[in-house]
Design a protein that fits this description.
This protein is an all-alpha fold and 487 residues long. The protein has a single domain, classed as Growth Hormone, Chain: A (Up-down Bundle). It is 76% helix and 0% strand. Helix 2 runs antiparallel to helix 8, helix 3 (63-90) packs parallel to helix 5 (127-145) and helix 14 (355-390) packs across helix 18. It is built from 18 helices and no strands.
């Protein structure tokens, strides 16, 4: 991808003779570069699948307060992305490069804020203190992590793999305790004995809650350590070098002018909104998956395993989509890949308490998730290429393209999970309760399948109007070659 600036000249612990010409970038260099994208996906996956149930059933925060945190936190995350992207573009070069310092200096703060996000300071927090605590750390963490997607959009294969790593670590650490709590709740719901038995059940739930909180903190510490190690590998193994015809210097275009140019580029608009609605669909189903399995499908003891199966399927199916993308084109592949998600959601929502069906459909949903990770991000460089052809005098706006792309994705994700939690508040969701009313169960069913399917269909319609097909993409590449951008 000629738009990504961080082309490695070094490698992890290997000295390379820069005078000797090589036919391509060594695998070791690519791996060092790719590792830098791991923290963003590891932590993002953990938040996406577990943050909602953590706030509601572990912290026992009110659904209304949780919805504000989940929405405003993502909204702030979305707003900070274009600002960080512009700041990166405006920054000058240093001895270690232009982009690497941003990762190096935000890494310690990012690790700290992520760990504190999953830490419960005390058992008897007031509602105001609890809201302020988690909202503050959520905003701080998202701000520091805004640097990562701007600098690492190329590393999609490694990032998809690390979604599996993040979910596996967080899910397997906390899943045992969620399963135990589900078992205790089932015993309590079925207990008709004397009051002493009821008191014992409450004590068991309290003990399980404490263990679950410690498990979430343990998972955060493990992912925080991996965050540190990934950034260290990136720092030691990658050096920046200029892309063809790029100065990699401070851009001279004012922020608002650059933003106007980006959002007025028609192919970019169609791609962004198609990706927005598709991402909304996936994130709404993802955000409600744990609650749906726990309270609506009687699968609370298995949801962490289902998440692991889903993401394993996504990782394995990446080569399949890459092959189809090359043979059939990106636009055709995105329609096939996203359409697979619809029957998977329908079957999961209808076949309750059926573990084999859940496993099979989770695998199918995972293959569709891989298409969402791979194809829209592979379409974005084509849009940037088209912009370069049509605006040859305006270069080095790639960070704005990528940051705005992430902005809409994150803002949509915040809307989906925030609105979902707000709906649960109005239908009477009780944080930490073992049993919920029929309105809550029905709402979880609607939030998991029918609403995401409608959003996904809207996204597919928008993708129909995306103008860059394979023929147009080849014309763009030919124009870039004539201009000297592509060898």
């Amino acid at each position: 991808n000629q738009h990504i600036r961080m082309i490695s000249e070094g490698s992890c612990g290997i000295h390379v003779d820069l005078v000797q010409k090589t036919p391509g970038i060594l695998l070791s260099r690519k791996l060092c570069y790719a590792v830098g994208g791991m923290p963003y996906q590891m932590t993002g996956t953990a938040k996406g699948f577990f943050m909602q149930i953590f706030l509601l059933d572990v912290v026992k925060m009110g659904a209304f307060s949780a919805s504000i945190i989940l929405f405003l936190g993502r909204a702030w995350d979305a707003i900070s992305d274009p600002l960080i992207g512009y700041a990166v573009s405006k920054s000058g070069r240093t001895r270690i490069g232009k982009l690497i310092p941003w990762i190096v200096f935000t890494m310690p703060l990012g690790v700290l804020s992520y760990v504190m996000l999953w830490y419960t300071p005390q058992d008897t927090m007031s509602s105001a203190f609890s809201f302020g605590w988690y909202f503050t750390w959520c905003c701080l963490f998202d701000t520091f992590m805004s640097v990562s997607p701007i600098l690492s959009a190329y590393r999609m294969g490694m990032e998809v793999f690390t979604t599996l790593v993040g979910a596996a670590i967080q899910g397997q650490i906390v899943g045992v305790h969620h399963a135990k709590r589900t078992h205790v709740c089932s015993l309590q719901n079925g207990t008709q004995g004397p009051s002493g038995n009821h008191t014992d059940s409450l004590d068991d739930i309290s003990d399980t809650l404490q263990n679950t909180r410690r498990a979430y903190l343990t998972g955060a510490l493990v992912l925080g350590m991996l965050y540190f190690l990934c950034c260290l590998m990136l720092f030691l193994g990658v050096k920046e070098q200029l892309a063809p015809l790029s100065k990699l210097d401070r851009i001279s275009v004012p922020y608002l002018t650059g933003m106007k140019m980006v959002v007025r580029h028609t192919p970019y608009v169609w791609l962004v909104f198609g990706f927005l609605f598709a991402s909304l669909a996936f994130q709404m189903a993802q955000g409600n998956f744990a609650l749906f399995c726990t309270h609506a499908a009687n699968m609370g003891a298995y949801f962490q395993h289902l998440v692991l199966i889903l993401l394993t399927s996504a990782t394995i199916s990446i080569p399949m989509w890459q092959t189809l993308l090359v043979k059939k084109g990106k636009k055709t592949t995105i329609f096939i890949g996203l359409s697979v998600y619809i029957p998977a959601l329908i079957m999961i929502s209808l076949m309750k308490s059926n573990l084999p069906i859940f496993i099979i459909m989770s695998m199918l949903a995972g293959t569709s998730l891989a298409a969402l990770y791979l194809v829209p991000w592979s379409m974005l460089p084509d849009v940037v290429d088209d912009f370069k052809v049509k605006n040859p005098s305006c270069q080095d706006l790639e960070p704005l393209f990528y940051s705005c792309y992430v902005f809409f994705n994150k803002f949509g994700g915040g809307m989906s999970v925030g609105i979902s939690t707000l709906i649960l508040h109005f239908v009477g969701y009780k944080p930490g309760a073992c049993k919920h009313n029929t309105e809550v169960i029905y709402s979880l069913q609607m939030l998991f399948a029918p609403m995401p399917i409608c959003l996904l269909l809207i996204g597919l319609v928008i993708f129909c109007f995306y103008p860059i097909n394979e023929e147009q993409r080849r014309k763009i590449q030919d124009a870039l070659r004539k201009a000297g951008y592509v060898p």
